[in-house]
Design brief:
Elements (H helix, E strand, L loop, with lengths): L5 E7 L6 H16 E9 L11 E6 L7 H21 L4 E5 L1 H13 L4 E6 L10 H15 L4 E4 L2 H11 L5 E3 L23 E6 L8 H9 L6 E6 L5 H10 L6 E5 L4 H6 L3 E4 L8 H9 L3 E4 L5 H6 L11 E3 L4 E3 L4 H13 L1 H15 L4 H13 L1
Parallel strand pairs: 1-2, 1-4, 2-3, 4-5, 5-6, 6-7, 8-9, 8-11, 9-10, 11-12, 12-14
Antiparallel strand pairs: 13-14
Helix pairs in contact: 1-13, 2-3, 3-4, 6-11, 9-12
């Protein structure tokens, strides 16, 4: 007689359009086959698909963008509701994603010794805090509540090291990289040479300071009136600022702000180079998705993710104003638009290298397919 399915809960803020939320959505497709799954959301924001077999519980009807102090009071209410759900649904394994849900899971570990609590850190903790107060709260509460849980997984070796060295996390930690579904349509590397000199660059991400899109725009200043064009996909608080800078630099003919789109892969297929310009990442989904589409890539060597994806986590030394040819793409220093200029010109002037790195991108991305990553995740959860 086969063993009955265990009850597992996934707790997070919402299922909005972020990277952690996309990972959850992909894992749910596999989790439903092995567990009775409850998806518990703080707020009713759902962007990604959820399998019918997964039961969704929303803890609040309030707006996710409530002021910080009101969200603190929400947290107390959520904890009471979450604790009750854990008991009522006889949850065996409680998994959480992102800081607030992780702290709550730590509290559940103190209140309910029967449930296995697993937390997931998705951003680089020392760089991913919004202000000094947030950093102080993290330094105080992470060691108290994270260490109450049974285990932690993140999507980068650098995140785990930061948690251990700077936040005093002592529980078992594992690296489980973000999964990806390989798109049905991908680029044929040989087609990148159809127009040898034209370089159609694409980037995707929220228009905020952390993503540092202004770095790419400044790199284009020296490429003015050339056959290099850029599409920036995404929306956010810096849209007007970026638009003004594009106009000021007379780059309106070369740079297009494409806005928020759902069919990102369609834009990838029309391009022949992807750029990631972030100051910091947890694990850059956009970079991995671009590689899965077959795009040759350029990325800042930011913490964390790009070095792992593009150079198998082997350290590189990059001089200011220069770039490094890594195993699976090109790397530049953070906020170095001169280095990015040279990397773009290199791809433009070496179409054979674009074709080479297109093949390498496709090869590398296959290591992150959902089947492979879920197998690692499921073994981690069970053990």
């Amino acid at each position: 007689m086969s063993n009955p399915k265990q009850n597992i809960s996934i707790l997070t803020l919402s299922l909005g359009s972020g990277g952690a939320e996309k990972v959850i959505s992909l894992l749910l497709k596999e989790l439903k086959n092995d567990y009775n799954v409850s998806l518990i959301l703080f707020y009713n924001v759902i962007h990604f698909p959820i399998p019918e077999e997964v039961e969704v519980i929303i803890l609040s009807k309030n707006d996710v963008n409530r002021p910080y102090y009101l969200r603190f009071f929400d947290f107390v209410t959520f904890l009471i509701k979450y604790h009750k759900l854990i008991k009522e649904r006889k949850i065996d394994i409680a998994v959480s994603f992102l800081a607030f849900p992780n702290l709550m899971n730590g509290m559940i570990a103190m209140l309910n010794k029967k449930v296995k609590t697993i937390i997931s850190e998705r951003g680089f903790p020392s760089d991913n805090t919004t202000n000094k107060l947030s950093l102080y709260i993290s330094k105080v509460f992470y060691p108290i509540f994270y260490n109450r849980c049974d285990a932690l997984f993140s999507n980068s070796t650098h995140i785990n090291k930061d948690l251990k060295d700077n936040f005093g996390i002592k529980i078992p930690m594992e690296v489980i990289y973000n999964p990806i579904e390989i798109p049905i349509h991908t680029i044929k590397p040989e087609t990148l040479n159809d127009n040898e000199k034209a370089l159609n660059v694409v980037t995707a991400g929220t228009l905020n300071k952390r993503k540092n899109h202004i770095m790419i725009i400044r790199a284009f200043e020296a490429l003015k009136n050339s056959d290099v064009k850029l599409t920036i996909l995404g929306d956010g608080e810096l849209r007007d600022y970026l638009e003004d800078e594009i106009i000021k630099l007379n780059l309106s003919e070369q740079i297009n702000l494409g806005g928020k789109v759902k069919n990102v892969n369609d834009y990838f297929l029309k391009s022949n180079c992807f750029v990631l310009s972030s100051f910091t990442e947890g694990f850059p989904n956009a970079l991995l998705e671009a590689m899965a589409a077959g795009l040759p890539c350029i990325s800042t060597n930011c913490l964390s993710g790009p070095l792992e994806l593009l150079n198998e986590n082997k350290n590189v030394a990059i001089n200011d104003g220069e770039f490094v040819i890594a195993k699976y793409g090109l790397l530049v220093n953070n906020d170095d638009h001169l280095g990015l200029q040279k990397a773009l010109i290199y791809y433009r002037d070496h179409p054979e290298e674009r074709e080479n790195y297109s093949r390498l991108s496709l090869k590398r991305s296959k290591e992150y397919q959902i089947d492979t990553i879920y197998s690692i995740f499921n073994k981690f959860v069970k053990n």
